[in-house]
Input
Amino acid sequence: MKDLMRIKCLISQDIETLLNQQIKKEAHSSSLYLSMASWCNQNGYDFSADYFTKQSEEERAHQLKLFKYVLDMGGNAISPEVTGIKSDFAGFREVFEDALEAEIAITQSFKNLASRCLKEQDFVTMEFLNWFLKEQREEEYKARRALELFEVIGEEGTGRWEIDKHVNDISYSED
Amino acid sequence: MEKACIDINELINVFSNNEGAVYQSDKLNCFYVDFGGKFARYNCLSLQKLKKVVEEIDIEALLLNTQRADFELVTFNGCEHIYLLSALEIISLKDLLQGTFTMFKLNHMVNDCLFRLVY
Ligand SMILES: [Fe+2]
Ligand SMILES: [Fe+2]
Output
């Protein structure tokens, strides 16, 4: 009997489902960052608003990268419904705490995907995921460094103003 | 008519249960679902859609709702067939399709072992 499903599509149904879930998570991240940008803007943290807007665009790019992969492999990429985006934050610091928490969840999600790929011996998708695993290094690093500014500079006096000014200086390099 | 179709297209029985069967045609690269008095042709995509639609039906809600009959219309855009199924039939169809896709997985493994792996 011909393996018709495999002829149509390189990835398994399970991997396809997980990739679609990841597409949804990236879309969620993108919306969350945009929501953070809005909060920062309205509360006078203009540099942070720019920072989160840029992050939002990056997450959208991640979403599309996954989307393209699913389609290229012959699968069914699903445009996700995104709901329940947090829009109210207790304070400037909480925004950055939530950002790091979101990145940690994304890293965890990619680890799950990778472990599923290894279990199925889907080395093709595994190789594709390597880009994202590497990207998460940078994503978590930046979120963690930003949060650390609150410790280093402190929130008192002009602290928050100072933190806001330095958020965009954070960059990651491997060497 | 079913018998004739099976003979002409050399259909392979992928999976069957008491209520129906799914066949594959290697000649035409398609599937036939024999269920609910219909002998309906599907391709890869539409068979996957059918499975998804059937799995999304909330059978518990269907049974508990006293305001309506325990029947559900099963179809989707681009599908040439409409099934009007009772809760029990939905359970059977679900079982049939899950069995079918499990056989696809098994067949995939068999194909890998027999024809694809080069040692
Ligand atoms: Fe991302
Ligand atoms: Fe990210």
Observations:
- The first strand of chain B starts at residue 12 and ends at 16.
